[in-house]
Amino acid sequence: MDSALLSEIIAGLKDGSVVPCLGAEVLADVVSPPTLARMPATSDELIYGLNDGKPMAQKLMYEFARAAMNIELKRGRASISNFLTKTYGETPWTRSALHDWIKHISPRYVIDINRDTQLLDSYAGIPHYLVQGCARMSGLLYRFNLYQSDGQRYTPIQPEDATEALPVLFKPLGSPLPQPSYIASDADYVDYITELMGGLAVPPFVKTLRLNKRYLFIGMRLDRDTERMVMSDLIAGAAPEGGWAFLPEPTRKEIKFCKRHNIMLIEESFQALMKEPDAAVC
Protein backbone atom coordinates (compact mmCIF):
# COMPACT_ATOMS: atom_id res chain seq x y z
CA MET A 1 0.00 0.00 0.00
CA ASP A 2 1.31 3.45 -0.90
CA SER A 3 2.85 5.00 2.22
CA ALA A 4 1.64 8.52 1.41
CA LEU A 5 -1.94 7.29 1.02
CA LEU A 6 -1.68 5.31 4.23
CA SER A 7 -0.42 8.35 6.11
CA GLU A 8 -3.29 10.43 4.71
CA ILE A 9 -5.85 7.85 5.82
CA ILE A 10 -4.37 7.45 9.30
CA ALA A 11 -4.21 11.22 9.78
CA GLY A 12 -7.85 11.52 8.72
CA LEU A 13 -8.96 8.79 11.11
CA LYS A 14 -7.20 10.60 13.94
CA ASP A 15 -8.56 14.08 13.20
CA GLY A 16 -12.10 12.85 12.47
CA SER A 17 -12.25 13.76 8.78
CA VAL A 18 -12.25 10.07 7.78
CA VAL A 19 -14.96 7.69 9.03
CA PRO A 20 -14.22 3.95 9.14
CA CYS A 21 -17.05 1.70 7.92
CA LEU A 22 -16.64 -1.85 9.19
CA GLY A 23 -17.97 -4.94 7.42
CA ALA A 24 -18.12 -8.67 8.08
CA GLU A 25 -14.55 -9.44 7.03
CA VAL A 26 -13.07 -7.55 9.98
CA LEU A 27 -14.39 -10.42 12.14
CA ALA A 28 -12.78 -13.19 10.08
CA ASP A 29 -10.14 -13.85 12.78
CA VAL A 30 -12.62 -14.03 15.67
CA VAL A 31 -13.22 -17.47 17.19
CA SER A 32 -14.99 -18.90 20.22
CA PRO A 33 -12.71 -20.69 22.69
CA PRO A 34 -12.26 -23.57 23.23
CA THR A 35 -13.94 -24.87 20.04
CA LEU A 36 -12.27 -22.25 17.82
CA ALA A 37 -15.48 -21.99 15.82
CA ARG A 38 -15.53 -18.79 13.78
CA MET A 39 -17.90 -16.00 14.66
CA PRO A 40 -20.68 -15.99 12.02
CA ALA A 41 -20.52 -12.64 10.28
CA THR A 42 -20.91 -13.11 6.53
CA SER A 43 -24.30 -13.77 4.98
CA ASP A 44 -23.58 -17.47 4.43
CA GLU A 45 -22.19 -17.95 7.94
CA LEU A 46 -25.27 -16.34 9.47
CA ILE A 47 -27.62 -18.49 7.39
CA TYR A 48 -25.87 -21.70 8.47
CA GLY A 49 -25.91 -20.54 12.09
CA LEU A 50 -29.58 -19.65 11.94
CA ASN A 51 -30.47 -23.00 10.36
CA ASP A 52 -28.62 -25.27 12.79
CA GLY A 53 -25.57 -25.59 10.58
CA LYS A 54 -27.51 -26.71 7.51
CA PRO A 55 -27.89 -24.96 4.15
CA MET A 56 -31.27 -23.63 3.06
CA ALA A 57 -32.94 -23.60 -0.34
CA GLN A 58 -30.84 -21.94 -3.03
CA LYS A 59 -33.12 -18.91 -3.31
CA LEU A 60 -32.82 -18.36 0.46
CA MET A 61 -29.04 -18.79 0.48
CA TYR A 62 -28.76 -15.66 -1.68
CA GLU A 63 -28.82 -13.35 1.35
CA PHE A 64 -29.23 -13.58 5.12
CA ALA A 65 -32.15 -11.13 5.11
CA ARG A 66 -34.11 -13.42 2.80
CA ALA A 67 -33.33 -16.51 4.89
CA ALA A 68 -34.20 -14.67 8.12
CA MET A 69 -37.56 -13.65 6.65
CA ASN A 70 -38.31 -17.28 5.86
CA ILE A 71 -37.45 -18.39 9.40
CA GLU A 72 -39.42 -15.51 10.87
CA LEU A 73 -42.54 -16.53 8.97
CA LYS A 74 -42.18 -20.10 10.24
CA ARG A 75 -41.03 -19.57 13.84
CA GLY A 76 -41.77 -15.93 14.64
CA ARG A 77 -39.64 -12.81 14.85
CA ALA A 78 -38.36 -13.67 18.32
CA SER A 79 -36.48 -16.64 16.90
CA ILE A 80 -34.25 -14.32 14.86
CA SER A 81 -33.61 -11.97 17.78
CA ASN A 82 -32.87 -14.88 20.12
CA PHE A 83 -30.37 -16.36 17.64
CA LEU A 84 -28.53 -13.06 17.23
CA THR A 85 -28.49 -12.35 20.97
CA LYS A 86 -27.17 -15.82 21.76
CA THR A 87 -24.56 -15.53 19.02
CA TYR A 88 -23.28 -12.05 19.77
CA GLY A 89 -24.33 -11.37 23.35
CA GLU A 90 -23.94 -14.69 25.16
CA THR A 91 -21.14 -16.54 23.36
CA PRO A 92 -17.53 -15.67 24.36
CA TRP A 93 -15.30 -14.57 21.48
CA THR A 94 -11.66 -13.68 20.96
CA ARG A 95 -10.75 -10.17 19.90
CA SER A 96 -10.48 -9.04 16.31
CA ALA A 97 -7.08 -7.58 15.38
CA LEU A 98 -8.83 -4.78 13.49
CA HIS A 99 -10.83 -3.82 16.57
CA ASP A 100 -7.69 -3.66 18.67
CA TRP A 101 -6.24 -1.38 15.99
CA ILE A 102 -9.40 0.76 16.09
CA LYS A 103 -9.12 0.92 19.88
CA HIS A 104 -5.69 2.58 19.63
CA ILE A 105 -6.92 5.20 17.16
CA SER A 106 -10.37 5.78 18.73
CA PRO A 107 -11.94 7.53 15.70
CA ARG A 108 -14.56 10.17 16.47
CA TYR A 109 -17.20 8.45 14.34
CA VAL A 110 -17.42 4.78 13.33
CA ILE A 111 -20.06 2.94 11.29
CA ASP A 112 -20.22 -0.82 11.89
CA ILE A 113 -22.74 -2.96 10.00
CA ASN A 114 -21.92 -6.05 12.07
CA ARG A 115 -24.18 -6.98 14.97
CA ASP A 116 -21.47 -8.00 17.47
CA THR A 117 -20.16 -5.99 20.45
CA GLN A 118 -16.44 -5.75 19.64
CA LEU A 119 -16.66 -2.10 18.63
CA LEU A 120 -18.45 -1.30 21.89
CA ASP A 121 -15.69 -3.13 23.78
CA SER A 122 -13.09 -1.05 21.95
CA TYR A 123 -14.58 2.09 23.51
CA ALA A 124 -14.97 0.67 27.02
CA GLY A 125 -13.74 3.30 29.45
CA ILE A 126 -14.28 6.10 26.91
CA PRO A 127 -17.47 8.23 27.09
CA HIS A 128 -19.30 7.99 23.77
CA TYR A 129 -22.67 7.80 22.04
CA LEU A 130 -24.14 4.63 20.57
CA VAL A 131 -26.72 4.78 17.78
CA GLN A 132 -28.47 1.44 17.39
CA GLY A 133 -30.75 0.72 14.44
CA CYS A 134 -34.30 -0.50 15.05
CA ALA A 135 -37.25 -1.31 12.80
CA ARG A 136 -40.96 -2.15 12.81
CA MET A 137 -41.57 -0.44 16.12
CA SER A 138 -44.88 1.43 16.26
CA GLY A 139 -45.23 4.73 18.02
CA LEU A 140 -41.60 5.79 17.57
CA LEU A 141 -40.69 9.16 16.06
CA TYR A 142 -37.25 7.85 15.12
CA ARG A 143 -35.89 4.54 13.84
CA PHE A 144 -32.93 4.38 16.17
CA ASN A 145 -32.08 3.88 19.81
CA LEU A 146 -29.66 6.46 21.20
CA TYR A 147 -27.49 5.85 24.24
CA GLN A 148 -24.78 7.76 26.03
CA SER A 149 -21.97 5.87 27.74
CA ASP A 150 -19.97 7.33 30.60
CA GLY A 151 -17.32 4.76 29.84
CA GLN A 152 -18.95 2.12 32.05
CA ARG A 153 -22.67 1.95 31.39
CA TYR A 154 -25.18 3.08 28.78
CA THR A 155 -28.08 5.43 29.46
CA PRO A 156 -30.87 6.10 26.93
CA ILE A 157 -31.02 9.75 25.86
CA GLN A 158 -33.03 11.88 23.45
CA PRO A 159 -31.40 13.21 20.28
CA GLU A 160 -31.77 16.81 21.41
CA ASP A 161 -29.64 16.03 24.47
CA ALA A 162 -26.66 14.91 22.39
CA THR A 163 -23.81 17.10 21.21
CA GLU A 164 -20.80 16.60 18.94
CA ALA A 165 -18.47 16.44 21.94
CA LEU A 166 -18.27 12.64 22.20
CA PRO A 167 -17.29 9.88 19.75
CA VAL A 168 -20.22 8.24 17.94
CA LEU A 169 -20.57 4.53 17.30
CA PHE A 170 -23.26 3.81 14.71
CA LYS A 171 -24.55 0.22 14.61
CA PRO A 172 -27.25 0.46 11.92
CA LEU A 173 -28.07 -3.26 11.97
CA GLY A 174 -28.22 -3.36 15.76
CA SER A 175 -26.46 -5.20 18.57
CA PRO A 176 -27.36 -7.22 21.69
CA LEU A 177 -26.22 -4.43 24.01
CA PRO A 178 -27.36 -2.34 25.81
CA GLN A 179 -30.72 -3.86 24.80
CA PRO A 180 -31.16 -6.28 21.89
CA SER A 181 -32.29 -4.57 18.68
CA TYR A 182 -31.66 -5.89 15.18
CA ILE A 183 -32.23 -5.29 11.51
CA ALA A 184 -32.19 -8.81 10.06
CA SER A 185 -35.12 -9.95 7.92
CA ASP A 186 -36.35 -8.52 4.62
CA ALA A 187 -39.23 -6.82 6.45
CA ASP A 188 -36.77 -5.17 8.86
CA TYR A 189 -34.67 -3.84 5.99
CA VAL A 190 -37.68 -2.53 4.09
CA ASP A 191 -38.82 -0.54 7.11
CA TYR A 192 -35.35 0.63 8.13
CA ILE A 193 -34.21 1.69 4.65
CA THR A 194 -37.50 3.52 4.11
CA GLU A 195 -36.89 5.45 7.33
CA LEU A 196 -33.27 6.09 6.32
CA MET A 197 -34.48 7.61 3.07
CA GLY A 198 -37.00 9.67 5.02
CA GLY A 199 -34.33 10.96 7.37
CA LEU A 200 -35.73 9.36 10.53
CA ALA A 201 -33.06 6.70 11.09
CA VAL A 202 -30.13 9.07 11.67
CA PRO A 203 -30.01 11.39 14.71
CA PRO A 204 -29.98 15.10 13.81
CA PHE A 205 -26.60 15.71 15.47
CA VAL A 206 -25.09 12.86 13.40
CA LYS A 207 -26.46 14.43 10.21
CA THR A 208 -24.40 17.51 11.11
CA LEU A 209 -21.38 15.50 12.20
CA ARG A 210 -21.19 13.52 8.95
CA LEU A 211 -21.08 16.51 6.60
CA ASN A 212 -18.01 16.59 4.32
CA LYS A 213 -16.54 13.43 5.79
CA ARG A 214 -14.57 10.89 3.78
CA TYR A 215 -15.30 7.20 4.34
CA LEU A 216 -12.99 4.22 4.62
CA PHE A 217 -14.69 0.90 3.85
CA ILE A 218 -12.89 -1.85 5.74
CA GLY A 219 -13.79 -5.51 5.26
CA MET A 220 -17.14 -4.63 3.70
CA ARG A 221 -18.25 -6.25 0.47
CA LEU A 222 -20.76 -4.20 -1.48
CA ASP A 223 -22.17 -6.76 -3.88
CA ARG A 224 -25.51 -7.13 -2.06
CA ASP A 225 -28.40 -4.70 -2.36
CA THR A 226 -28.98 -4.36 1.39
CA GLU A 227 -25.46 -3.19 2.21
CA ARG A 228 -25.35 -0.77 -0.70
CA MET A 229 -28.74 0.75 0.12
CA VAL A 230 -27.96 1.18 3.82
CA MET A 231 -24.52 2.66 3.18
CA SER A 232 -25.73 4.99 0.42
CA ASP A 233 -27.96 6.75 2.93
CA LEU A 234 -25.51 6.66 5.83
CA ILE A 235 -22.78 8.43 3.85
CA ALA A 236 -25.08 11.17 2.55
CA GLY A 237 -23.36 14.55 2.72
CA ALA A 238 -19.90 13.05 2.17
CA ALA A 239 -16.98 15.14 0.96
CA PRO A 240 -16.56 15.37 -2.84
CA GLU A 241 -13.57 13.06 -2.46
CA GLY A 242 -15.78 10.26 -1.16
CA GLY A 243 -13.06 8.11 0.39
CA TRP A 244 -11.60 4.64 -0.11
CA ALA A 245 -12.67 1.00 -0.10
CA PHE A 246 -10.45 -2.02 0.46
CA LEU A 247 -11.97 -4.41 -2.09
CA PRO A 248 -9.79 -7.20 -3.47
CA GLU A 249 -11.17 -8.39 -6.82
CA PRO A 250 -14.16 -6.00 -6.83
CA THR A 251 -17.33 -7.07 -8.59
CA ARG A 252 -19.14 -5.03 -11.22
CA LYS A 253 -21.70 -3.87 -8.65
CA GLU A 254 -18.98 -2.83 -6.21
CA ILE A 255 -17.12 -0.88 -8.88
CA LYS A 256 -20.35 0.88 -9.88
CA PHE A 257 -21.17 1.78 -6.25
CA CYS A 258 -17.71 3.18 -5.61
CA LYS A 259 -17.71 5.18 -8.83
CA ARG A 260 -21.11 6.69 -8.01
CA HIS A 261 -19.89 7.84 -4.59
CA ASN A 262 -16.38 8.88 -5.69
CA ILE A 263 -14.80 6.17 -3.56
CA MET A 264 -11.31 5.10 -4.58
CA LEU A 265 -10.84 1.34 -4.88
CA ILE A 266 -7.84 -0.18 -3.09
CA GLU A 267 -7.69 -3.67 -4.52
CA GLU A 268 -5.95 -5.32 -1.60
CA SER A 269 -6.74 -6.59 1.88
CA PHE A 270 -7.45 -4.11 4.64
CA GLN A 271 -4.68 -5.90 6.56
CA ALA A 272 -2.33 -3.46 4.83
CA LEU A 273 -3.61 -0.80 7.23
CA MET A 274 -2.14 -2.64 10.20
CA LYS A 275 1.06 -4.00 8.67
CA GLU A 276 2.72 -0.79 7.59
CA PRO A 277 5.23 0.56 10.15
CA ASP A 278 3.95 4.11 9.75
CA ALA A 279 0.48 2.94 10.80
CA ALA A 280 1.58 2.39 14.39
CA VAL A 281 -0.67 4.45 16.61
CA CYS A 282 0.20 3.39 20.18
Spans of at least 5 consecutive residues with low confidence: 277-282
The biggest beta sheet, please? Answer: 9 strands, mixed
* Average pLDDT: 94
Global structural class? alpha/beta
Number of DSSP-assigned strands? 13
Distance between the termini: 20 Å
Helix content: 25-40%
Q: Using the alpha-carbon principal axes, give the shape.
A: globular
How would you describe the oligomerization state of the chains in this entry? single chain
Organism: Uliginosibacterium flavum
Protein name: SIR2 family protein
Pfam family, one: SIR2_2
Polypeptide structure, described:
This protein is of the alpha/beta class. The chain has two domains: 3-29 and 96-279; 37-90, no CATH class. The chain contains twelve helices and 13 strands. It has a nine-stranded mixed sheet, with helices on both faces. The protein is globular, with a radius of gyration of 18 Å. It starts with a helix and ends in a 7-residue tail after the last helix. Mean pLDDT is 94; it is low at 277-282. This is SIR2 family protein.
Please describe the topology of this protein.
Elements: H1 3-15, E1 18-22, E2 31-32, E3 37-38, H2 43-50, H3 58-61, H4 64-75, H5 77-90, H6 97-105, E4 109-112, H7 118-122, E5 128-133, E6 144-149, E7 154-156, E8 168-171, E9 174-175, E10 181-182, H8 186-197, H9 204-209, E11 214-218, H10 225-234, E12 243-246, H11 252-260, E13 263-266, H12 272-275
Helix pairs in contact: 2-4, 4-5, 4-8, 8-10
